[in-house]
Amino acid sequence: ILIIGGGATGSGIALDAATRDGDLKVACIERGDFGSETSSRSTKLIWAGIKYLATASAGLLSRNLFISPIQTINDFYDEFKMISSCHRERKWMIEKQEHLTNWIPIVVPFTKWIVWPPPFGHWLFSLFPVLAPAVFKFYDGMSGFACPPSYSIGKKKAGKLFPQINDKDLKYAAVFYEVQHNDARTNIAIAMTAAEKGAHISNYVEMIGAIFDEKKKVVGVRALDVIAGDEFEIFTKNLVFAGGPFTDSLRGLENEANDKDIKPAVRGAAGTHIVLPGYYSPNKMGLLDYNTTDGRFLFFVPWENHTLVGTTDIKSNPSTAPTPTENEIQWILKECETYLSKDLLVRRSDVLSAWKGWRPLAVDPNAPPGAPVSRDHIISTNPQTGVVFIAGGKWTTWREMAEEAVDKIVGKDGPKCKTLELKLHGGEGYTRNLPIQLIQKHGMSSDTAEHLAKTYGSRAWEMCEHSRPTGKMWPRFGIPLADLYPYIEAEVIYACREYACTIEDILSRRTRLAFLNKDAALAAVPRVSDMMASELGWSESVKEEQVSAALKYLNSYGGRFPQDERLKAFRAQHTKGDIMDIFNVIDMDQSGFLDKQEVADMAVRLGITLEGSELDEVFDHMDKDKNGRIEIHEFIAWLESAETDFREKLCMEFGLGGKKVEDLKEMGSGSLLG
Question: Among residues 120, 321, 454, 670, which one has the fewest Cβ atoms lying within 10 Å of its Cβ?
Answer without folding.
Answer: 670
